[in-house]
Amino acid sequence: MLATRQPVLRRFWYPVMPQALVDQGPQPFTLLGEKIVLWRDGSGRYAAMADRCPHRSAALSKGWVDGDALVCPYHGWAYDGRGACVRVPQRPDSGGLKGTAVRSFACTERYGHVWVALDEPLAPIPDWTEESDAAYRRIDQFYEPWNCAGFRLMENSFDNAHIHFVHRRTFGDINDPNPPQPTIERFDHGFVARSDVPVFNTELQKKNLRDDSAFTVRHITAHWYMPFLRRLQIRYPNGLDHIIVTAATPIGDGSCQVVQFCLRNDTEAEATAADIIAFDRRVTEEDREVLEGTDFDAPLDMNSGVERHMPSDQPGLLMRRMLLELLATHGETEQTRHYPSRQAAE
Ligand code: FES
Ligand SMILES: [Fe+2]
Question: What is the pLDDT of residues 169-182, one digit of tens each?
Answer without folding.
Answer: 998 888 877 778 89
